[in-house]
Amino acid sequence: MADTIAAPATSDRNTVRVDLDTRSYDIKIGRGLIETAGAEIVSVLPGARLCVIADKTVAGLHLDAFSTSLDAAGIVHTVLTVPAGESTKCFREFERLCDDVLATRLERGDAIVALGGGVVGDLAGFVASATRRGMAFVQVPTTLLAQVDSSVGGKTGINSRHGKNLIGAFYQPVLVLADTAVLDTLPIRDFRSGYAEVAKYGLLGDADFFDWLEVNWKAIFAGGPERDEAVARSCQAKADIVAADELEAGQRALLNLGHTFGHALESAVSYETERLVHGEGVSIGTMLAHEFSARLGLIGEDTVMRVHRHLTAVGLPVRLQDIPGQLPGAETFMDIIAQDKKVSRGSLTFILTRGIGHAFVEKGVDPAIVTEFLKEKLEP
Amino acid sequence: MADTIAAPATSDRNTVRVDLDTRSYDIKIGRGLIETAGAEIVSVLPGARLCVIADKTVAGLHLDAFSTSLDAAGIVHTVLTVPAGESTKCFREFERLCDDVLATRLERGDAIVALGGGVVGDLAGFVASATRRGMAFVQVPTTLLAQVDSSVGGKTGINSRHGKNLIGAFYQPVLVLADTAVLDTLPIRDFRSGYAEVAKYGLLGDADFFDWLEVNWKAIFAGGPERDEAVARSCQAKADIVAADELEAGQRALLNLGHTFGHALESAVSYETERLVHGEGVSIGTMLAHEFSARLGLIGEDTVMRVHRHLTAVGLPVRLQDIPGQLPGAETFMDIIAQDKKVSRGSLTFILTRGIGHAFVEKGVDPAIVTEFLKEKLEP
Ligand SMILES: NC(=O)c1ccc[n+]([C@@H]2O[C@H](COP(=O)([O-])OP(=O)(O)OC[C@H]3O[C@@H](n4cnc5c(N)ncnc54)[C@H](O)[C@@H]3O)[C@@H](O)[C@H]2O)c1
Ligand SMILES: NC(=O)c1ccc[n+]([C@@H]2O[C@H](COP(=O)([O-])OP(=O)(O)OC[C@H]3O[C@@H](n4cnc5c(N)ncnc54)[C@H](O)[C@@H]3O)[C@@H](O)[C@H]2O)c1
Ligand SMILES: [Zn+2]
Ligand SMILES: [Zn+2]
């Protein structure tokens, strides 16, 4: 972990190993990592050609630096761009990218690189999994959310008209390069959104980390070495859970703290990111999960307030009323939740908590109690 | 192995175990198996609901029997049909099926069943792999090709405009039920096409099996217990190779005997099945592989003639001239082969042979020699 002041460029780095047998890989974390990305990739994939997939916004900001470092390492590469935004995670872009990757005549040992946020990572990862039934895959996550969450664990996919992330593959990258300096160009709203996931790791399983975040969040936002540490600790937390449960049979569900409600909210606003981005949904969902846990007598109001205080301090929304515009009623929310992929054979599974750092998976939650709870929250 | 005369309906069965750690599964082979399919599926997937995918031709012939057996076993199921034919293995059908499966609200433990030939098996398997990032998958192959080849080994996928099977996943079924009686309704041309793969298993690695086929092929075509034995021995041959090399890193390439040329032929006729079906391409490709091996001095003309004699006896095409209509020139074929997924880093990989039962993988074949060879074959 970084405990000195960040030196310029590439000297301050953390590595998190994701342990998955033959599919194990490293997540490298540090400021300026993008400038040595070429060398890092060559050491893992010697001789491979690359197809870099980026959204147009990220391409405009960081592609030059990335491409320069690939050139410096002698890596032959082509670039494919997609529009920025959640609606890019669709069948049409999936098809187009698979076809365009094939048109570049990449072979199976060559690699697809996702340079971007979670949207590009999820989409490009699914493309990598499917093209020639699996090409090597490298993630260069450029949002905080992608660095601490979506680039760890191998979930890839696109959205269907029936819901988010319902089509995809479990597919692991061979390398993840998280340059924390590229986050300097991230709009504050997106940084905050990613921070909701950082806070989640503390809340679900690591009270010490949550304590540390309450003290250090400003430095994380400002880009100090605390940012690298926060990213590394978050990746480690997720990597540990994923290593124990790669295909999401059990404990991995803990990562969905705040997400059952959060996904329902995203769906309810039709994934209109002007109204709600993923981490904002997670933030409100996390509050709801704590409030619901309090309602069930699992935690006290003081714990609810502490979470509320921290999320509010960093500027995250915490109430359903913080979402601009109309929301559907409780019954509609329940329908959305029932179709969510966290549902198992008709009974509702929720992530609840017995205190900060002590979330747990509760199967068989009574839908009637949830409906009642949501009704109150919607019309307080 | 069946060594008695087939008893009526369901009593004569063979089981081939495909050994892949936690993804191991059984292939059950026998006449009339479809009538007890429900019970077989319940024993592997208790409580699962099913979505059955079939092409319209197969649905017309065998869906009633299958559906009746599911009902008898109390299995809740829905049916989705697709048009018959290779062009169904496309992005559009993939997307439609994923969406339609989601619309049935199947959950992750529920299953998708492919009832049909290789087209439906490949497409439905890819849908199963991608929907909710992986649902349980059962194959009920109804063509000889699907029973002996495409349902074994876990390759699933669709075609791209850049070539056949270029988009897909490695995804294993939990059970394969091969009812050899459903092959009675298969047009002779499709039966022969599948038989090209049966002969391939003898040619690539089992001279005894090829001897046995030379003696018993008529009984296999007629539907005697020899058919069950041929299917079981073929599945076993493929299962052994797949178990040793699930992700096609090495020896699995032997299964491509006849396929590099065969795929190029299918591509050259734009997958128009009126002109050429898969096994016909394989048959001609297998002859070309033997002739090319003879050209390189690896086998004698007597071996070439013996293969020629058997494939001709069963009615399979063996020469490029057997394909109706114009074919492109040798250079175009080479371009097609270069884009074929069997190409590794620019050098051509072919499956050649040192005699019946002794195929081997040859990397780095000189494209110029192949071009020369093809020129002669195209303009004899
Ligand atoms: N695979 C997983 O396990 C997993 C986990 C969580 C979330 N997700 C998915 O991640 C997606 C959300 O990810 P996201 O929040 O990164 O969204 P995103 O990829 O859309 O990025 C958000 C915005 O930031 C821009 N951007 C990215 N990097 C930038 C930079 N360095 N500077 C300036 N702008 C930049 C993008 O162009 C985009 O407009 C969702 O689709 C969600 O489903 C996946
Ligand atoms: N996944 C693999 O490992 C693998 C291996 C070899 C081939 N394949 C694929 O398999 C496909 C070819 O398979 P196929 O030859 O089974 O084609 P197919 O599925 O199109 O079936 C051929 C025809 O027979 C009909 N049919 C199927 N069962 C019947 C029955 N019992 N009675 C009457 N008609 C019936 C179908 O409707 C179709 O018209 C190709 O797409 C090829 O790429 C895949
Ligand atoms: Zn999330
Ligand atoms: Zn074949």
TrEMBL record, chains A, B:
Cofactor(s) this protein requires: Co(2+); Zn(2+); NAD(+)
GO biological process: amino acid biosynthetic process; aromatic amino acid family biosynthetic process; chorismate biosynthetic process
Keywords, ordered alphabetically: Amino-acid biosynthesis, Aromatic amino acid biosynthesis, Cobalt, Cytoplasm, Lyase, Metal-binding, NAD, Nucleotide-binding, Zinc
Principal location class: cytoplasm
Cofactor, how bound (note): Binds 1 divalent metal cation per subunit. Can use either Co(2+) or Zn(2+).
UniProt-annotated binding residues for NAD(+): G118, V119, V120, G121, D122, T142, T143, K155, K164
Subcellular location: Cytoplasm
Pfam families documented for this protein: DHQ_synthase, DHQS_C
Pathway: Metabolic intermediate biosynthesis; chorismate biosynthesis; chorismate from D-erythrose 4-phosphate and phosphoenolpyruvate: step 2/7
EC number: 4.2.3.4
Domain 3-dehydroquinate synthase C-terminal, chain residue ranges per copy: 194-343
Catalytic activity entry: 7-phospho-2-dehydro-3-deoxy-D-arabino-heptonate = 3-dehydroquinate + phosphate
SUPFAM superfamilies: Dehydroquinate synthase-like (SSF56796)
GO CC list: cytoplasm
Positions that bind Zn(2+): E197, H259, H278
InterPro entries: Dehydroquinate_synthase, DHQ_synth_AroB, DHQ_synth_fam, DHQS/DOIS_N, DHQS_C
Molecular function as annotated in GO: 3-dehydroquinate synthase activity; metal ion binding; nucleotide binding
NCBIfam families with a match to the protein in the record: aroB
Function: Catalyzes the conversion of 3-deoxy-D-arabino-heptulosonate 7-phosphate (DAHP) to dehydroquinate (DHQ).
Family membership: Belongs to the sugar phosphate cyclases superfamily. Dehydroquinate synthase family.
Protein name per UniProt: 3-dehydroquinate synthase
Taxonomic placement: Bacteria, Pseudomonadati, Pseudomonadota, Alphaproteobacteria, Hyphomicrobiales
Annotated gene: aroB
